[in-house]
Amino acid sequence: SIATTGVDPLLAGLFSLGDKAMTRVHRLQLREAELKAAMGAELDKAEGEREEGRIEGLTREIRSLQHDLAAALMIEEEAAIPDKVETPEDHELAELRSRVDFGEYLRAALAGRGVIAGAELEYNQHLGLAEDFFPMDIMARDMETRAARDGDSRTNQGTWIDRVFERTAASRLGVTMRSVNPGVVSIPQTTAGGAPVQRGRTEAVAESTYTVAITEIKPSRSAVHGIYSIEDNLRLPGLADAIMRDMRAAMTEGIDRKIFVGDSGANENGADITGLQTASIGESEINQTNKVKPAETLAMFTSLIDGVYASMLSDLRIVTSVGYYRLLEATIANSAAENQTLAAFLRAAGLSWTSRGGIETATAAGDFLGFAGLSNGIAGAAVAAVWNQGQLIRDPYSAATKGEVQLTLNYFWQFAIPRTANFKRFKAVAD
């Protein structure tokens, strides 16, 4: 049970609903309020009476709970989308998909051909994919269900150690990841409409025009290219699986990173990715002197509250650069009392965040410190669409004289922000 002492009366009123009526979000919100009340009570004590260990424990628990709450809110938002009405054809397709094995696509690629029989060919035909393509959703499922294998006992090989990639963070920010079928993705958005007005008897209501904007997302190609030697392939059991795991992880990390920093490396503008770092979204700034001051730092974050897309600090989904994360955790905000760090000060105020590599490593003037998603109505406000088709190409010929095999994974995706008001960024500037 959750104690109601010190809890906001509105939250405490949820108890009258009973356990069955309370959602996971309700329970997490109640627990958060209880922890913050306990933290407040501890901080209100005289300096010599405070339990520093308890304060640190409460801080860690609040931070962990706020991460859980953000995830639960996202799940609730997705669950609020009306479910598709299933048909017998849907059940038939689901049964077919359950029989599809990504390994068959891999074996076909290694043999230099497309799938030629079985459930894989039938599934491709249903999705309108050519034989030498594979559905990306199968690749995603394979990532979730296949772990790194132990090597063949004949080689006395231990568990294969894969590369570690930077943690994905776009979904925490509130970006919607969407798998789509061939074609252009159209996202309609209501931008203007009627407003309620009070009228008396026989008084007409003025006409209002509803305005709908449509964001179209077209696919652009990204690729992962790798080379391995035929000697390694014979010497190391599980090499092909390890390479495919690495390609899948590289693809996932690459999509996530480009959502933040973009990618203009293609030789045509239509293939560029415009990330949050250069997109037309709101921006807050803090100068070099104030970036280590608690009140001024908190003011930068509160400036993101607009009362529409974010009504309180807990409505902010924040991802910082590694450089800024280190600065917050290492800066003493109040040396006169408890040596409180800037990070602890902000957490006590109700903020939580996570860091991601690949954005910035420093906090010099002009560097980006992080990004914030304003969570009210954020579902679909930014979309990373991945087309449900990919191509795996094995080339043993181009570098045959060196005994090398080239493996290329092509995938198609694009990032767009239909409603920019849900996203902000913040950066450091010169004094």
How does this structure look, described?
The chain has 13 helices and 14 strands. The two termini are 51 Å apart. The chain has helices at residues 9-12, 24-43, 52-79, 88-98, 102-110, 118-127, 136-145, 170-173, 230-235, 239-261, 294-302, 322-330, 342-349; strands at residues 133-134, 176-180, 185-192, 211-217, 220-229, 282-287, 316-321, 332-334, 340-341, 353-356, 368-374, 383-395, 404-416, 423-429. Helix 2 (24-43) runs antiparallel to helix 3. The model is unreliable at 1-7 and 141-156 (pLDDT under 50). Helix content is 35%, strand content 22%. The strands form 4 sheets. Strands 1, 2, 5, 12 and 13 form a 5-stranded mixed β-sheet that branches. Strands 6-14-11-7-10 form a 5-stranded mixed β-sheet, sandwiched between helices. The protein has a two-stranded antiparallel sheet with strand order 3-4.
